[in-house]
Design brief:
elongated; eight-stranded mixed β-sheet; 20% strand; alpha+beta; BirA Bifunctional Protein, domain 2; 15 helices; Rossmann fold; 435 residues; 3 domains; five-stranded mixed β-sheet; 40% helix
């Protein structure tokens, strides 16, 4: 069959055979966020371009190379969101969420867009889960945020596969001293730096530490480390963060090369990394960004958060061979022959669905044999066949599709109640057998 068009490069279809895996992971994320007192926020998929220029940083690769930006018919510059923090911060200010009491804790499940080379674990359209907290400068907030991310990985059985790395990049005063040191160091290697890093040298030399060029990475290995330039207050804050992580039993490694890729970070930065999916090893990244709200026009507000990519996390689950719960299957399929039988089947199916059972029946006019073949294909746990004789007798046989055991069921009343009783009894037996 000829297809009119195909998906755009860098975007992927999430098919029904895979979507339940996404739902399982998303459910764990939502529950973890809610356990920590976070509530969901949903922001628009596009924002005024200036929001990302101010928050993400004009010298970042995201702003310079990767944003999907366009002009509306009214002449406004609009950008599809490349990340979730800027929109959440804008909503915090615009709707005065600070009046609800601090800290304000939100989480989001978003689709984001970045124009970059599409590869495994890095798509142009991708999905992020994130948590953001506004209004706390306390080191406990940093540790709580890290613990929340760590707990998600533990719930998914990935505790041993994903490692935590942390660092502090200090306050703006610290960063100015560190930036000057980097300018001096990289200035001695100007002739070897790539063109992109040369443009970063005067404006934001910390970005050079993120360069993917092998030559630039080699030069950066001997660059000054930020921990040698942070002030006493920032150093004390970092020690407190580590102390709370120790209290929580969270293992970590201090990695002084972590700076994160966006300009709004201050003090604590962290990444959860893995070596089981190749080069794209960062699964989650975050940290503190105490100057962001002020940069967007608000009052100085300490803030922090993290984001993790769902595509990359699912890659880790696959690489780790993690067994996810099976795809939900049909609880009961009711086959029918004839108009009267179809009406009875339709009525019973609606009753079963009202009781939250996954019930199904024929919608395309199949014969009985084809209906039963379909019931097998969708993995129905039970089936019932209703014909004229069954209607006359006001009873039909319920078949357990796995064991073949059959049970007589009433059609003139009591079908739902009896099915519930049998279903619960058999589920209890299955659970006992599995344990």
């Amino acid at each position: 069959m000829a297809v009119l068009t195909r998906k755009v490069k860098g975007a992927e279809d999430i098919l029904p055979r895979d979507s339940y895996k996404w739902q399982f992971v998303e459910d764990i994320m939502r529950k973890e966020a809610e356990c920590h007192g976070y509530k969901e926020i949903r922001t628009p998929v596009f924002e005024h371009t200036v929001l990302f220029n101010r928050s993400v940083g004009e010298t970042t690769d995201v702003v310079q190379k990767e944003m999907y930006t366009f002009d509306t018919k009214g002449g406004e510059s609009i950008t599809l969101r490349p990340e979730g923090t800027a929109g959440a911060a804008r909503a915090y200010l615009e709707h005065a969420l600070y009046n609800d009491g601090l800290p304000v804790k939100v989480y989001y499940m978003l689709t984001c867009y970045r124009y970059e080379k599409a590869q495994a674990g890095r798509q142009r359209e991708f999905h992020q889960f994130g948590m953001e907290a506004y209004g706390s400068a306390d080191a406990r907030a940093d540790a709580e945020m890290i613990c929340a991310a760590s707990s998600i990985f533990e719930r998914l059985g990935l505790k041993e596969k994903i490692k935590l790395e942390i660092n502090s990049i200090g306050c703006p005063t610290c960063r100015k001293k560190y930036s000057d040191a980097l300018k001096t160091y990289f200035g001695e290697h100007k002739e070897s730096l790539c063109d992109t890093c040369l443009s970063r040298l005067d404006r934001n030399p910390m970005r050079i530490l993120d360069c993917k060029s092998e030559i630039c990475k080699g030069i950066a290995q001997n660059a000054p480390t930020v921990l040698d330039y942070i002030c006493e207050d920032c150093a004390a804050h970092f020690e407190q963060v580590k102390g709370y992580l120790d209290c929580a039993g969270i293992e970590y490694t201090v990695n002084p090369t972590i700076v994160r890729g966006l300009d709004y970070y201050t003090r604590t930065v962290f990444e959860f990394v893995t070596d089981c999916i190749g080069a794209q090893g960062t699964v989650c990244g975050g940290g503190r960004y105490d100057g962001l709200i002020e940069e967007l026009g608000g009052q100085p507000t300490p803030s922090l958060g993290f984001a993790m990519g769902l595509e990359r996390l699912l890659m880790v689950l696959r690489a780790n061979g993690t067994e996810l719960p099976g795809e939900p299957v049909c609880d009961i399929y009711i086959a029918a022959l004839g108009d009267a039988a179809n009406k009875k089947a339709f009525t019973l199916i609606q009753e079963l669905r009202s009781a939250s059972f996954r019930a199904d029946g024929d919608l395309v006019g199949r014969g009985l044999r084809a209906q039963m073949k379909y019931a097998n294909k969708i993995g129905a746990k039970y089936s019932v066949v209703i014909g004229d004789d069954d209607l006359s007798a006001n009873k039909a046989m319920l078949k357990n599709m796995e064991s073949g055991e059959q049970t007589e069921m009433p059609l003139d009343g009591g079908f739902l109640e009896k099915f519930i009783s049998l279903y619960v009894e058999n589920e209890q037996k299955r659970m006992i057998a599995e344990s």
